[in-house]
Give the backbone structure.
Amino acid sequence: MSESSTRDFYDELARDYHLIFRDWDASIAHQAKVLDELLRSGLGPGPHRVLDCSCGIGTQAIGLALRQHDVVGSDLSPLAATRAAAEAAARGVSLPATAADMRRLPFRSSVFDVVLCADNSLPHLLSAQDVRAALLGMRRVLRDDGLLMITLRDYDDARLARPTATQPQVSETPDGQVINFQLWHWHEDGERYDLEHFQLAPAQSTWNVRVRRTTYWALTRRQLTEFVAEAGFTDLSWHTPASSGYYQPVLTARRASSP
């Protein structure tokens, strides 16, 4: 992963990230409901201390804080992390958030009940070495028997079909409709792709076109399962959108208790 280019992508997107959603607050509430159910079914009623290590502007972290969990956020993008804390405060909850690389989490060991890495963030890591470093760091900051939760795109089919674009999505704003879509440019290895994110926003009698670029590793479920098990997690379980109601597959796993 090019740390600077990924950070630039999200720094540039931070102001407009909510425009990806048709209704951001509705998405905050729905995603938190599903993740909270998975979390409480694994650890009990709580509340629990949660680290969202790819918090972005707070989509999952704010919702979990509104559900009474003690949530801390971190993100590679300082602008996104700053906005997440501000958006949480505007909704009446506290969300301490800091800029941090998930491969080098700046937290003490064994302090969180849950580590969440959502929104297809882990696949920004483009090598096995980087994925291992991130997962070992997540394991380090989890308490014994703590819960890891990772969500990512369903890449099993994508690796076969190699889609080149996503369907345009339209969001309604006070200033008019905003259109989002992506172009995918696959690498020769068939596993990684460069993404161009297009956002078209109304501007008087024309459109303001914003284009941001980043790169992903299209990790299959089998690949991620092997990485997570290798990092020392047990009780791995996949929750599909059909079974959980979440918009991406969710992998849950437990940090094995120390001897």
